[in-house]
Structure formats: structure tokens, C-alpha cells
Amino acid sequence: MSSKMFPILEYVALLSVILFQLEPRIADSNNTVMKCIDEEREALLTFKQSLVDEYGVLSSWGKDNDKRDCCKWRGVRCSNKTGHVKVLNLRRSDDENSRGTVLKGTISPALLKLHDLRHLDLSNNHFGGSPLPEFIGSLSRLRYLNLSCGTSLLKVPRPFQYLSGLVYLHLENSNLFSLGSLHWLSHFSSLRHLDLSYINLTKSSDWFQVVAKLRSLKTLVLHSCALPPINPSSIWHFNLSTSIETLDLSDNNLPSSSVYPWLFNLSRNIQYLNLGFNSLQGSIPEAFQLMVSLRFLYLTSNELEGEIPKFFGKMCSLNRLCLPYNKLSGDLSEMIQNLSGGCTMNSLEGVCLEGNDITGPLPDLGGFSSLKILVLGENRLNGTIDKSLSQLLKLESLSLGRNSFTGVISETFFSNMSHLQMLYLNDNSLTLKLSHDWVPPFQLKSLSLASCKMGPHFPKWLQTQNQLISLDVSNNGISDAVPDWFWDLSIELVFLNLSNNQIRGKLPDLSFLRYDDIVIDVSSNHFCGPIPPLPSNSTFLNLSKNKFSRSITFLCSIIKNTWNFFDLSSNLLSGGLPDCWLNFDSLSILNLANNSFSGKIPDSMGFLHNIQTLSLHSNRLTGELPSSLKNCSQLRVLDLRKNALYGEIPTWIGGSLQNLIVLSLKSNNFHGNIPFQLCHLAFIRVLDLSLNNISGKIPKCFNNFSAMTREKSSNPIIGLADKIWIFPRYVYRYSYLDNVLLTWKGSEHEYKSTLGLVKCLDLSSNKLHGAIPEEIMDLVGLIALNLSRNHLTGPITPNIGQLNSLDFLDLSRNQFSRSIPSSLSQLNGLSVLDLSSNNLSGKIPLGTQLQSFNASVYAGNPELCGLPLPNKCPDEESTPLPGRNDGANTLEDEDDQFMTLGFYVGLILGFFVGFWGVCGTLMLNRSWRHGYYNFLTGMKDWLYVTAALNIAKLQKFRN
């Protein structure tokens, strides 16, 4: 559902009712009734034959004697004077969003025989992207046309100019085909309602001039049309009709300069205004107060700043104020005070300030007696939830989630909320104390109590809520079994989240869930037994981190499905992977990791053409990688680690899977060389080939890993981050973050929310030989480089200091020789280093970084010397001197006497006095500060090393 929200739908419904009332109606049974004309009845039956009506939506249309009067068929209305069909309305309402109400197929030209057709509405059905029929333009008597039904608007039919009498035109089209000039609209001088939402108007530079000429226009909806900015010169020559009452330009990325100048010229009559999802910046203009008739204002997801202006409190018609997901700030109490300073307090029914930076406690809202909607989620509100909310007797929607509220919510808080339909208290530090036999006064349709304290028992009061379509009781501390009555009432559920509890027992058959696009998350519980039948019409299924067992061969009984996300990871599943993945083409994320699956990866996985994440790690899979996987060209994450796969690394990985960001083949039995074709993986950020039997040299072309050559990453998350799930009037978020286990600092760590920032090359524990290619030093974005446990030789390149993003470097257990390059000491961010068990020699370069590591990181290199190793380098050793018993005073004895504890205390005090004396001045002069920075850094390192060596010498002689 688009962001136009329900006010537009209410307005459209109202207009539709008005138009229906203008049409002649069928007379009562006591009066003369004209039956439908035979030719038109046959035309309707021909039209029906072109449709796919799987669930009998048009079951009333038939040839039987009692069904011959087409004027009595569903959606058909005739004139009681002539018998001609005047109305054909097969619109699927938003409340009918079930799989049993959708019509599919094509639109038959048989409709041309409905010579007096005035009203045609096929909206909210799915006609498979078939082109908009040319013949529609020949229905010259049409006054109402709504074809937002999944047709493809490749071009506007040429005869559209014959529809000059149209009053209502709705061509909303989710297929985003592009239109050029909108000059064809100029013929519709009587047009009062125009909706072209989701039609790409990027090339329609004349859109403003055209719609400005439609003087009868009252409703203009151009949602998500990629509108080009308005030419400033056009603003003065073409003014939109001042009769416009409803204006929706949302989701067009329009800047403030392209909207505000002409918007306020038509402000007197406008009642509904939606400018959400654009690029409006700065504070909210005071010119909005000129809109004296304004009832609904939506400025969602812009870049508006500052506080809510006081003038909103004086807009007497304002019914709904929605400003979510901006940069608004300030104290909530002051904002509410601004709104309560005038007549708005009596008219306001909805306030939505979600996703801003609003602070403070929840103020007294008892004075807003008309308030039905209060949405304050995702701010920085704190304190307890004010009891004045229980005085809002008309409240239907309450959303306070994702704040910092604390305290206890009891059933008395809800005692007066008999109209409540939506309740979001999620992600606060709240405790719900509700008695076991509590009967709420409301019937909820949407409920989110995620991360509230509510366990250990499953809430029995939910048994009274038989209208729920979305429910989130995740992370509630529930350690109970789900009672049978819950599954009986959940048939209407579209969104169900029980995750992160300790719920036990078995899942029932879930295939009975009847709606489309179902989201189910029962992950991180103790569900056990075999996986039950699942709904084929779901979008998101997460059953991970439970105790489900046995095989998943049941998947092959699902012939048609709409799955986008399927996660069965971290269970007790076994057996082979089913070989029927050609039935799951819509999958974008498939995670079967951390189970006990065995056998080969089936060839049919190559039919997952839309797959982006395929995670099969930590199983018992064997065999070679099937070549069919090269068809999965959308793959971004391929994680096959910890299996028993073998063979050479296929060359087609680099040739066909060029969108890969993460490739992990760790802990398998791959052998042979690293194919140079892997160098085509320009987006790769994590390449883990460790713990295999790979031989040969490291390819020089690894510098083609473009993502690793950049130090910064734009997105830390890989996966579905806060995906928006929308059901009429209700919004939920669900997410899936791709994750990878990396060996880091001696142990494995899971990277999830920051995976997109990790850039890792791990080739450890193989049989690689030769030198490190100089080209690897171009990968300046690398966070981790692990080449340990191979047979690599040669010196460590002096250019290793270029890898200034490194946090982890392991070159241990190889055959590297010569000295440690001094540039290594420049890697100031290095927290893990291991150079042990090589043939390195010479002095460890001086610098606080390399001396700060434990001596073990240099062990196994007999010819290395210098701190932190105990063996000194030749230039640090002194000439042997006679013992102290011979009474001779030597220069070294004098040095020893001079280097007392007081000397070092004075040395340190002198350093800090001098250092801060100079730095205190330099802090006031930027150019001096930069000039002395390098000098002071070098001096600090020299003093540290010198002091350390002299202290060691002093202790040696005193012993």
C-alpha cells in the first residue's frame, strides 16, 4: 500500500459513493424492472472467460435461468429505464486483501458491447502486466475509469481523446513504465480526480503546465512518479487551479524550491496535502498557516528541522498532523503546548511525530479529547507513560515504541480504551502486569509488545482478541507452550513474531493462514519436532535457532509459493537437501546453515535466479559445487564453510557471480590453485578460503577487488535492514542481517550489523607458496589479512605500511625471511599481530606499536632481536667490564651512578612540563600545531625506547 494512507482512500470512497448515487438505480421489486440486454450479458460472460477467477469471485455470473439477469450479478449495475449496463465495479477493497479475492488474466474487448458504460473500476486486481487495452479509449461515454489493476501502461491509447467527458481517472501503475508528454490530458476539461501514481513521469517535463490547465481538478495524486522539478519560470505563467482540495506529490524527491513557491498560491481550499518522501529542508514554513481549510498534512520522511511551529495550534480545521522521519527536535511538552494553544486542540484527531529527535517525558494529553491517533515512536522520550492517556476515550492507535519509557503498565491503564485497535509499546523498559483472567475492553488489530516484560506464561488475554492481523510478542520472557486456542484465532494473522522467547512445544499446520505476503518469525525458541506444513503465500519465514528435527523433503510438495525469505538455520535437521528448488524462484534469502544436512548440493539450486544470500555452512555436505549455481547471478553472500566439499574452486564463481560481497569456502577440502577469475569479484569484501588444501601462488590480480581498495564503506549492513511491512493502516518492521563468522583475535566472532564494514582476506591454513604479491598492498581498505600456516617465502614487502586500515595481521607459520619492514610500525590501528614461526631476522623496528605486543608474536624467529624480545641486538650490547670487586671505576659505573631513580622522575617531569608548555601554546595556533605534530610524535617514541633500555640496564647492574 502506498504512503497516501487512508485519508485518500476515504476521500476516494466518498467520491465513488457520490458517483454511484448519480447513476440510475434498479427499481424495487414492486416496480417495473428492466432486465439486462442479451448482447450485454453475453459480452460480460465473454469478459469473464478472459479472467482467471480461481476462487469464484464471479460465481454469481452464469447462464442458468435464475442467473440470466446480469443486472443482479456482482459488481454490475444497470439503468432501470433502458436495461443497459452502466456500472462495472470489480474493485477489490483493501479489507479483501486475501488470496481468494484476486482476479487475474486479461481485459477482453468484449466490454465494447457495453455501449452505455459510464463507470469502470477493475482496481486492486492483478492482470499480469498485460498492456492497457487500446479499446478502453473507445468507451466514449465513460465518466469514471479506474484501472489501477496491474496493467502495463506502455503508452496511453490513442483514442483517449474521445474520453473527454471523464470526471474520474485513476491509472495507478506499479510497473513504472515511462510516459512522455502529458499533453493528452488537456482534453479532459471536466476532470475532477486524477491519479497517475507509480507511473514514471521523468520525461514529462510539461506535467505542471498540463495539470495547471485542468480547471475543474479537485484531486491530484502523483505519488512516486519521479517528477522532474518545476521550471521556476512556469510558476508565474501557470497556476494550479485554486479548486484543488486534495494534493499528493509524495515520494518524488522534490526540493523545497520546487514545491513551496506555487503551493501556497492554492492554499485557501486545500484540505489534504501529502508532501512526504521528498527533499524538503529547513524549518517548517510559516506559509502553511495560510491553508485555512487544511485537514490532513503529511510531511513524512523529509529533512525538516527545528520545532513544531506555534501556528499549528491555531489551525482550526487541522485533523491530522503527520511529521514522522524528519530531523525535528525539541521537548515534547513544549510541542504539545504549542498545539494546545488554540482551536486545534478541539479538532485534532491524529498526531504522528515518529522517527525524530524529540526528547522529554510524556506530557498530560487529557485535553485532546478528539484524539484518535497518537504515534510518538522512535524518539528519545523517557520517564513513565502518563496516565492521562487513559482519558483519551476515542483513541484508536497508540504507538510509543522504540523510546526509553520505564515503569509498569497495568490493566487499569486500558480501562477506558474501548476503541483501541493498534497498540505499539515495543522496545521500551516496560513491565506489563495483567491478570490471568483479564478481559480487555478493546479488540486489537495490530499489537507489538516486543522486549516488554510479560512472561513467563503465554498471555491468556490474547484469547479475547479475535480480530488480530499482526502480533509481535518477541523477547517477552515467555517460557510457556503456545496454547491451542491461539492457533485457532490466528487464521487472520498476516504478521506473527514470537521470536527470542523460550517457547516450547510443536508448531501446528500453518498452511491454513489465508492472507498474502505473510510474515512469520518464531526464531530463537525451543520448538521441536518436524517442521509443519507452511503457508505457500508467505513472504518471510524464520524458524531458525529452534530444535526442529528430521528432513525437509516436505518442501517438494509446495508447487507454487511466494517466499522471499526462508531461514531454517541452527536446528537439528538432517537428511539430504531436497532437489526441487525450481519451485522457489522468488527466494532472495535461503539459510539452511548449522544443521546436519548431508549429501550433495542439488543441481536445482541453480533455479534460484533471484537468490541474494545462500548460506549452507556448518553441515555435512559433500561433492563438488554444482555448475548450475553459476545461474544465481544475483548472489551477494555465498557461505559454504565447514562442510566436506571438494574439488577445485570453480572458475565460474568469478565469471558469473560478480555481485558477490561475501564468499566463504572455509574448512572444506578444496584443492588446486586459486583461479585468477576470482579477480573479477569487484564488490568482494570478505574472501575466506582458509583451512583447505589450496596450493600454488596468490594471484597478483587481487588488486582488482575494488571494494577492498576503498577505506570506507557506505552501508554497514548486508541483508534486509528494517524492511517495511505494510497492511492497510498498520506498519511493521522486520529485518534479516547477513552474518559471517570470522576467526579474529584468536577466536571466532559473528559479524552481523557491521558486516558491510568488514573487509577481510583469509587464505590461512593452505599450501600456498611464493611471495606475497606486491599488488595486495593496494587493498588499503583491508581490516584483516590472514596468510598464516602456508609455505610463503621471501621478504615482507616494505609497502605493507600502506594497509593503514589493518586491525588484524597474521603472517605466522610461513617461511618469510629478512627483516621486519619499518613501515609496519606505522599501522597505528593494529591490535592483533602474529609474525611467529618464520625466518625473520634483524632488529624489530622501534615504535610504540610494535613494542606494545607480547614477545610471543615474534617467537620462532631465532635471528630477531630487540624489544619486546629478551635478546638484544648487537648494537645494543656493551663491552664486557671487570666486576665491581676490583674497585675500578669505569665510565659505565659512572653512568650507573648517574642513572638513579630521581633522574628518571626528573626526566619524566621535565618532559611533561616542556611538552604541555609548548602544546598549550600550539593549541591556540593551528599551523604551529600541525608543524610540530610529527616532531613531538618522534620525540615521544625516542624517549620511551631510551628510557626502557636504560631502566633495563640499571636493573641488570643492580642485580
At the third CATH level, what is the topology name of the domain at 759-877?
Leucine-rich repeat, LRR (right-handed beta-alpha superhelix)
Number of helices: 13
- Which structural class matches the secondary elements? alpha/beta
Low-confidence spans? 1-31, 724-729, 878-959
What is the makeup of the main sheet? Answer: 30 strands, mixed
CATH class of the domain at 759-877 equals: Alpha Beta
Span between termini? 82 Å
Mean pLDDT: 82
Radius of gyration: 36 Å
Helix content: 10-25%
Q: Determine the strand fraction and express it as a percent band.
A: 15-25%
Shape: globular
Domain Leucine-rich repeat-containing N-terminal plant-type: 38-79
Protein name: Leucine-rich repeat-containing N-terminal plant-type domain-containing protein
Membrane topology: Single-pass type I membrane protein
Organism: Citrus clementina (Clementine)
